[in-house]
Amino acid sequence: MFRYLAKRGITYVFMIFLTTSAGYLLAVSTLKPALLEQERIPRPTPEQVVNSLSLKGLNPELNPWERYVDWLTGIVTRWDWGRSPNGAFINAEFGDRVWISTRLFLASIILTLVIGVALGVYSAARQYKFSDRAITAYSYLAYIVPAPIAYFLVQLAAININDTLGKRVFFVTGISTPGMDPGWAQFVDMVAHYAVPTIAITLVGWGSYQIAQRQYLLDNVNADFVRTARAKGLTRNQAISRHALRVSFIPVAQSIAFTIPAIFAGGFFAEKIFAWPGVGSWSIDAISQQDVNAATATLAYGSVIFAIGAILADFATTLVDPRVRVQ
Amino acid sequence: MTNLNAVDPAAVAEEAHLEGHEVVINKSTIILRRFLRNKTAVAGLIVFVALTIFSFIGGFFTEWDKSKIDPFSIGMAPSSDHFFGTSQAGIDLYAQMVEGTRVSILIGLVVGLVSVLVAAVYGCTMAYFGGKVDKVMLFFLEALIMMPALLVVAVATNGGGGGSFKQALPSWLLLTIVLLVFSWMGTARLIRSMSMSLMSRDFVKAAQFMGVPARRIVWRHLVPNIGSLLVLDITRGVTAAILAEVTFSFIGIGIKVPDVSLGVLIGGATSQVQTYPWMFWVPLGAMFLLTGSLAMMNDGLRDAFDPSSSSVGKAKKKKKSTS
Q1: What are the residue boundaries of the structural domains of chain A, listed by start?
Q2: Are A152 and B270 within 8 A, CB to CB?
């Protein structure tokens, strides 16, 4: 088990290194912070720009390879991911934002998975009944709406609720109201801020899991081994939950690994629309501000999340599938 | 000893009889019939075709185009002069819709078709050769999955200094290329795992021992078995590409004005939902029709290509009485 983990870990570390390096080289050769500095008033001379940028380790006169070597040395020797053109330190900025993103997504991801898989099982067990049709139709609807538009519609709905009630029940943007007294009032304020983004992400997210789980379970419900279980005297529900469900969960567990990065990408839209200053919105701001180091840091973060998801998926598979042995 | 290869005249006659009376139905005919039997899927196909036709010839029904400003009707609600109303700047929404729908459909079709093709070739190659080739190709594939497409799209379409791509190509073509590069990996992985289980089946082994060349095995034995998956992934890929275009353009990193697409129209109108509602809801409705019709077809196609489908038609009485 431990050997397997170490082996996979090393592969992924190497992979993260490759993608991050490729991302850095791509970013460093396309993003030019010097051009933005030129737009300042009063307009700095080119020498001033080069000077101020090289103080932050962003000297535009070095070629990409030299900057890459500098940047990599900084990370390997001091765990220093560099600085932004405006002087902020990537490490500190990242620490704040990653906490915000995690708070925003953790609850939604868990809710999405649990609701999606549970509804998938429920609807597969009642195939072609009204409840199945209603649930599956909803999932297809969620599937054909792009995430940011769905978030936007949820936001509109929340605003409408606020308007009809005549007071502010939900906050549609931001993390918290500044200057709240700690205690009960702060807690209510936090819930009011969390409710809309969490509901929006969950509502959009569970559809694909429901469809996948229903599909795989239906493939297995009529399999021979389930019929055998029925013949041995198990009830239909017992046969489904003990025999069909385990098998049908394997591909769903596999797909979770590949959707976790997608949730974070979708979460980027959520952060943008609900104005949460997390990692996702940072990555886009980094590009519009021509910030090489920040863009690369968010890319590295995405790769790490993917690697964790892939390893978790392998574990989930071994948990539900007795035929697979981790070695 | 009986000669197994001897032709039995009775069997030949039987076969000719069957062929002559159309009792044996062509596989493609069965698929077509099953598809046509599914009313939802047919409705989806009709809507999709109608939208495609609209996007190509819709421009002939209006005198306006996407760059013409009507100074007398600025921010007007839909009327007989401007079918879908006009924007804040006085540009006819109908003309923009025709162009935007066309761009969205084109991006969807190109990305959907080509990415499935690439995925099929890549996945089958991995599964067929296995070993080192498989390891290296899988590594490359996972590295690509790791790259967040979002960042690359943003850099490619937004990169301030290195605007060389941006000037050389129109933004919709650039977006198509980037979407293509990042859309085939999931399917390729799926095809690889399916082909690998097929590769261990006896019929493939038998073909290998008989000395059938690799290319032929892939074409004759692997592709037909994963064919239904490929067809499904085409529609799914088209939907995903249309959605991705809308998503990227919605937040302003995909297609850039003056190029128009559904995403650009929807994204540009979000701040005016209260004042110019038609500018938001009309393109959104078109997008729903587009993706919705594809989703409806998807289900019908799955049924039609599923060899164990339980979808059965009504028996034709006339045929029964004659046979």
Answers
A1: 2-26+104-324
A2: yes
Fold classified for A2-26+104-324: MetI-like fold (1.10.3720)
Q: How far is CA B211 from CA A194, B207, B215, B216, in A?
A: 64, 7, 12, 10
Return the number of CB contacts < 8 Å for A and B.
108
Number of domains in chain B: 1
Tell me the β-bridge partners of B91: B69
SS3 assignment, position B290: helix
With contact defined as beta carbons under 8 Å apart, do B269 and B276 qualify?
A: yes
Decide: B70 and B64 in contact? Cβ < 8 Å.
yes
| B320 occurs within a structural domain | no
Note down the domain range covering B176. Answer: 9-305
Dihedral pair phi/psi, residue B128, rounded to 5°: -70, -45
Q: How confident is the model at residue B162 (pLDDT cuts 50, 70, 90)?
A: very low
B44-62 per-position pLDDT tens digit? 999 999 999 988 887 777 7
Using left for φ > 0, alpha for ψ between -120 and 50, and beta otherwise, residue B212 falls in beta
Q: Residue A288: closest CA among chain B residues belongs to which residue?
A: B158
Write b or e for each residue in B185-218: b if 16 or more Cβ atoms lie within 10 A of its Cβ, otherwise e: bbbbbbbbebbeebbeeeebeebeeeeeeeeebb
Q: In three state form, how does the secondary structure of A118-147 look?
A: HHHHHHHHCCCCHHHHHHHHHHHHHHHCCH
Beta-carbon separation of A149 and B186 below 8 A: no
In-domain check, residue B310: no
Give contacts of B 256-295 with A, CB under 8 A. Answer: 263, 266, 270, 273, 284, 287-288, 291-292, 294-295
Q: Provide the residue type at B250 as one letter.
A: F
The two tokens of residue A321 are 């599938």
Residue B143 with chain A: CB contacts under 8 Å: 15, 18-19
Which pLDDT score, from 0 to 100, does residue B114 have? 93
H-run or E-run covering A8: helix A2-30
Among chain B residues, the shortest Cα distance to A160 is held by B274
- CATH number of the domain at B176, please: 1.10.3720.10
B136 near A CB under 8 A:
no
Residue B316 falls inside a structural domain = no
Task: Check if the interface score ipTM surpasses 0.95.
Answer: no
* Residue B318 located in a structural domain: no
User: What string of DSSP letters covers B15-40?
Assistant: HHHHHHTT-SPPHHHHHHHHHHH-HH
Q: A268 to chain B: which residues are within 8 Å by CB?
A: 150
Rounded CA-CA distance A90/A111 in Å is 31
pLDDT grade for B6, boundaries at 50, 70 and 90? low
Q: What is the pLDDT of residue B231?
A: 81
| Residue A321 main-chain phi, psi, to 5 deg | -110, 105
Q: How many whole angstroms separate alpha carbon A120 and alpha carbon A132?
A: 9
Give Cβ neighbours of residue B36 (< 8 Å, ≥ 6 apart).
Answer: B42
Largest Cα span, chain A: 85
CA–CA gap between residue B85 and residue B71 (Å, rounded): 13
User: Is residue A325 predicted with pLDDT exceeding 70?
Assistant: no
Cβ–Cβ below 8 Å for B284 and A149:
yes
State the first-to-last Cα distance of chain B, in angstroms, to the nearest integer: 36
pLDDT for position B121: 86
**Under 8 Å between Cβ of A98 and A279:** yes
B63 to chain A, minimum CA–CA distance in Å? 31
